[in-house]
Design brief:
This protein is mainly beta. Helix content is 8%, strand content 32%.
Length: 158
């Protein structure tokens, strides 16, 4: 039976061999709003890590995968960047390129898609440890995305 993670209106079943965390950063200034971020990986997740995989992607190799589901504020929902409706659940090889990485590392490839789901704006960011393992990596990510749920209840703190 897969482990389920659920918090802040986000729910995901972790396949065997995956780790995951759902968190919302503490506000660093009065009135600042923060939103949830989901980190999922086939490698151990360090306690300290960047929103888009800092301190994680450096450890990816072979068929390892790192996935971020990063939420933006409600003001983003109507922006053209987030016009795609619904979490992408079936990524394709042509979604991936080394040029789509936040930080280019030798051999890695990535995917970044902005979308709106459940009235919430997100970025799905995926890094594959070795682009030569593209087909296997995409299949692993698609299996993971098949069981991610987003509800409208993930309200921000202020």
């Amino acid at each position: 039976m897969a482990l389920r993670l659920a918090a802040h209106g986000l729910d995901v079943a972790l396949p065997a061999g995956w780790e995951g965390r759902i968190r919302r950063r503490a506000a660093t200034a009065p009135g600042e709003r923060t939103y949830p971020v989901v980190h999922l990986a086939t490698v151990p997740l360090p306690e300290e890590r960047g929103d888009f995989g800092g301190f994680v992607v450096d450890t990816l190799a072979g068929d390892d995968v790192f996935v971020t589901l990063f939420e933006y504020g409600p003001e983003s929902v109507e922006k053209p960047l987030f016009a795609t409706r619904g979490l992408p659940r079936q990524l394709r090889a042509d979604h991936f390129s080394p040029r789509r990485l936040q930080r280019s590392l030798p051999g890695q490839t990535g995917c970044q898609i902005f979308f709106t789901e459940g009235g919430r704006a997100f970025c799905l960011y995926v890094v594959l440890g070795d682009r030569r393992q593209l087909a296997r990596g995409v299949a692993r990510v698609n299996a993971l995305l098949a069981d991610v749920r987003v509800t409208k209840t993930g309200v921000a703190t202020g």
